[in-house]
Amino acid sequence: MAASIPARFGRRLAPSVALLGVATVGLLVVNLPRLERADFVFVNGAEVTSLDPQAALGVPEQRIARALFECLVERAPDGLEILPAAAQSHTQSADKLEYRFQLREQARWSNGEPVLASDFEASFRRMLDPATQSPFAAQLDVVVGAKAYRTGPALAGEAADQAWSKVEIRASGPLELTMRLEYPRVDFLHLLACPQMAPVHVASLKRLQQDEPSKWRRLWNRPEHLVTNGAFVLVERRLNERLRLARSSTYWDSANVGMASIDALSLDSFGTALNLYLTGEADWLDGNVPPLLVPTLLERKDYQRRPYLGTYFLRVNTTRPPWNDARLRKALSLTIDRRSICNNLLRAGQRPTWSLVPWNMLGEPMRETDYGKDVVEAFGLLREAGYRGEGAKRLPALEIHFNSSEVHRDIAEAVAADWKKTMQLDCVLVNQEWKVYLDSQKRLDYDISRSSWIADMPDALNFLEIMVTGSENNRTGWSDPEYDAKIEAARRELDLQARKRLLTEALDILNAQTPVLPVYAYVTQDLMRPELQGFSTNLINDQNPKHWRWKSGARPKGQRGLVGSSTAEKATRPPKAP
Amino acid sequence: MIRAALRHLAGLVISVVIVLAVSFALMHAVPGGPFDAERGLHPEIEANLARAYHLDWPVWKQFLQYIGPFNLGPDGWLGTGADRFGGVLALDFGPSLRHRDYDVADILAASLPVSFQLGALALAWSVPLGILLGTLAAARAGTWLDALLRVLTTTGIVLPGFVIASLSLLVFAFAWPLFPVAGWSSLRHMVLPAFALGAPCATYVARLTRSGVLENLQLDFVRTAKGKGLGRGAVIWRHALRSALLPVVAYLGPASAAILTGSLVVEKIFFLPGAGTHFVNSALNRDYTLALGVTLVYTVLVFCLNALADLLASFLDPRVGGRQES
């Protein structure tokens, strides 16, 4: 023990000194940025992928794009009608091929510059440019020249201008934008109302790209650089925490914007979101309520459910025998006890569906439900195919793929039990991590794969389109030339009645062939302060934050704990056919 | 001294490169890619995306590009001009594939301070308390106090983090509304998460300390100290405890690295923008660059904290320190 005095001293004190050090560092870096509560706080789900509207992939991104940017036209709160937005009016040529949009004289970008037709042209051009990698570029294929431009080589300079001159999206005046279509489409304006069709300020973006060639991508969507034309501007962005938006003073209709500030919380845990709502820290949250919580929430007045254009279904790999036989697929569909799944598992008002197009959108009559009869019909089909009765073949075991989630497991178990009980069909449940599940679905490496589809336009075509041959969303190996022809004809059909007829015929083919097994139609599930007004109750849950306002003009003082509860509204009603 | 430091540094760089290479290979071997979604992409658009992020290159070439320090040009081997340098060795961790408006460096810079603050706070209460309780339990071994502490620490170890977090929320945010339920904007917001994050650590430290002190109390040097006529308190606190802390310090190296980099569970329940979330979500999202970025940070942190733990151990027990010099 020949240690010197300082060393001894050090030994004794070292642990406490180290701990103190850690603690001090911890407290020194405490630099808590304070933010006053926004006028309106809502839970927006997972962190947005990007603020670039041309990359607005999911519901969270689209809500933010709606708040920050304004399209040429917008959907009315009912989701069906089209209203003027950035364009105060538009005209169509007699052949319905040419659209002319008149922009507003008083419209301004958030940097004070006027919103010009050339801005829209540049923005659509940016969207179609292969270098932008916009996942929505293909939606504009109906515009003359658009497909050739987006699938062509990435060009620069004069060659690019040359290529662009063949695309019929043109600023025909400072405030007039002209677009010309290859063929007339009845839903073209609905398409333009989608948030990903909003304009970005290409001039400032280009400046930034020049000044910061390597860093522009991460600088662009910061409050100090992002130029927007919508009702709100971006004030602050905290990754994985919140987006703070404030009413834009340069917006042409700013006097009618209800909320002075909005916080969109990047939060995808329902439990935490519910805690925030219950303590008054959030004013609205929606999304998938865990079924276990549904009965509790049903007691609350502020838990609201409405029909939602989404279908939960199972894909069948039609390339694997014996499931290439439509009769067997139909038998699979008939023997699923959907009513029991909706009533016993989900319980929030989801509606059993036998059709990929949910909520009887095409005005078809509601299907009579008699599970017993369906099973008998399924037995008939099995017998016909040689899988029932004398010398029947045995159905091979099925693998049901689903991505990790309690609900998906419960549904898969219920379906497997139904099939076992009725057809003595053995099922293996395969739980896969999200990306693995998507990958095996894409490669058709499954028997049955859980799926869902949410419409981004209130249109049955939006659902039926996914099943055409070669669609990247088909993923069943199923293909029917007659079906493809009906869909293609419906796309070009201008007469609404004839269009509906074509879609109904296509749906009949799909139902007969059964490459997908529809299970239930979605409902929206909102928890929302009753004092909120201007909330849209349309079928695609398309919200325009511009219209949100508090009943009394200001947010009611925070209520803690449970808000008044009473008997819940029972089942949700089916919507009127759009 | 300098040579030792250099040796450490070389070891660090080699470990980092190996860890990154293995992680890179594993990430790319897993099925699914960053741009796979429920809604499929048109093949041309998918190809555009893959090209933009070099995902169409062979994996070894992607790795070379990622490590740097030279950028690989689109056709030739090396980039030119301002774009010559890139990759981890040029301190460029690339853009995130999931958070398209951010570079990996931005994401780490935004989330690590939150995790460090919270982690430091959690360590600051849990380690001293754990040592204190462990020593108390050893000093009163076999009494009701020992039994009580044992029950408490066992509970703390076996209870998963989300249970502790939910229970503390239930009690201190709902039943007795002392603290906010979630968020990150004041010191009050930190209390419950710091408690939930530190609790397992405190209980583990308490158990390690107790068994260490108990063991030491049987040893000759403690008997000698007693024989010298030292009081019971002095024997325990000054002699038995000091070397009993060795396993605690060894545990704290990697444990504090884990605590300082955040925890998915605590961050999710309390809605904190920390780095723990990225450890899990970047892998789930196939956000290759971000996953490698957090792996890199974690590797460096474990390395440094282990070195610090070694240093501390040599202060506590000269025999440990002597090993390095000889």
Written overview of the protein:
The complex is a heterodimer of chains A (578) and B (326). Chain A starts with a helix and ends in a 28-residue tail after the last strand. Chain A is globular and about 80 Å long. By secondary structure, chain A is of the alpha+beta class. In chain A, helix 14 links the parallel strand 14 and strand 15. The longest helix of chain A is centred in the N-terminal third of the chain and has 24 residues. Helix content of chain A is 32%, strand content 18%. In chain A, the strands form five sheets. In chain A, strands 11, 12, 13, 14, 15, 16 and 17 form a seven-stranded mixed beta sheet that branches. Chain A has a four-stranded mixed beta sheet with strand order 1-10-9-8, with helices on one face. With 326 residues, chain B is mostly helical. Chain B has two domains: 89 residues, no CATH class; 209 residues, MetI-like (MetI-like fold), CATH 1.10.3720.10. Chain B is 72% helix and 0% strand.
Briefly characterize the structure.
Chain A is α+β, with helices and mostly antiparallel strands.
SSE topology:
The complex is a heterodimer of chains A (578) and B (326).
Chain A: H1 5-28, E1 40-43, H2 59-68, E2 73-75, E3 82-84, E4 87-92, E5 98-103, H3 117-128, H4 146-151, H5 157-164, E6 169-173, E7 176-180, H6 188-192, H7 202-211, H8 216-220, E8 232-238, E9 242-247, E10 261-265, H9 270-278, E11 284-286, H10 294-297, E12 303-316, H11 326-334, H12 338-346, E13 351-352, H13 371-384, E14 398-403, H14 406-423, E15 427-432, H15 434-442, E16 448-454, H16 460-464, H17 481-492, H18 496-513, E17 516-528, E18 532-533, E19 549-550
Parallel strand pairs in A: 1-10, 14-15, 14-16
Antiparallel strand pairs in A: 2-3, 4-5, 5-7, 6-7, 8-9, 9-10, 11-17, 12-16, 12-17, 13-17, 18-19
Chain B: H1 2-29, H2 43-52, H3 59-67, H4 104-139, H5 144-158, H6 161-175, H7 187-217, H8 220-227, H9 232-260, H10 264-270, H11 276-284, H12 288-316, H13 318-325
Helix pairs in contact in B: 1-12, 4-5, 4-7, 4-9, 4-12, 5-7, 6-7, 6-10, 7-9, 8-9, 9-12, 10-11, 11-12, 12-13
